[in-house]
Design goal:
It is built from seven helices and eight strands, in the order H-E-E-E-H-E-H-E-H-E-E-H-E-H-H. It is of the alpha/beta class and about 200 residues long. The chain has a six-stranded parallel beta sheet with strand order 5-4-3-6-7-8, sandwiched between helices. Strands 1-2 form a two-stranded antiparallel ribbon. Strand 4, helix 3 and strand 5 (about 95-100) form a beta-alpha-beta unit. Helix 6 (about 175-190) crosses helix 7 (about 195-200). About 30% of the residues are buried.
Length: about 200
């Protein structure tokens, strides 16, 4: 049973879970999705892989936190319908405008990047088994904040490219460690030493 099917067995959901329709952590009688990512309250652009995983949590939380507009680019067009269903559910909880596009639409990608303050890579592109970078240098500008949820390697091709273009960057180590810390708090009732984990596993 996956996290989408387990949703049907529980009641008393809050807004985020009714939108997301999936759980990552079940703790006694309380339900909590630990992939909550805090996104700056500005227009955002997200690229995603074909599965509704990290991008869903990031987009939903960003919308609930007050982001005005999000453009989502999907690598597999056949999965766009699930994205439209997510948007329909989200409209009942947030006025955020979310638009879905195919990642193959390079003109739209460039247009969205030109108007965005933040771009977040929530795909697997950048991991050792899926190397590469979805953006090119001419798509970036110094004012753009570039975040990559890939944490191994921490210094992905996207992060390197963004830094070379003068962009502020956020790598995937922080979100990875923070969601582990939340899970440990929920499951074991104790605080994980976040600083120690960062120094041990992600020291430069």
């Amino acid at each position: 049973m996956d996290k989408f099917h387990v949703f049907t067995f529980f009641g008393g959901h809050d807004g985020q879970h009714l939108i997301y329709r999936a759980f990552n952590v079940v703790v006694h009688d309380n339900i909590f999705v630990f992939r909550r990512l805090r996104i700056l309250p500005v227009r955002a652009l997200q690229t995603l892989r074909h599965r509704l995983r990290s991008y869903v949590a990031a987009a939903v939380q960003a919308a609930l936190d007050g982001v005005a507009q999000i453009d989502v680019f999907n690598r597999q067009e056949s999965y766009l319908q699930r994205g439209y269903e997510l948007i329909d559910r989200l409209h009942g909880y947030s006025p955020c405008e979310i638009s879905l596009y195919a990642l193959s639409d390079e003109d739209q990608l460039r247009a969205s990047l030109a108007e965005s303050a933040l771009v977040v890579n929530t795909t697997t592109v950048g991991y050792p088994d899926d190397p590469g970078c979805l953006l090119t240098a001419d798509m970036l500008r110094p004012e753009l904040i570039v975040a990559d949820l890939v944490y191994n390697p921490r210094n992905t091709e996207l992060i390197q490219l963004a830094r070379s273009c003068g962009c502020k960057t956020v790598d995937g180590a922080g979100p990875f460690v923070q969601q582990a810390a939340i899970a440990e708090r929920l499951w074991l009732g104790r605080e994980m030493p976040v600083d120690f984990a960062m120094e041990t596993f992600f020291a430069d």
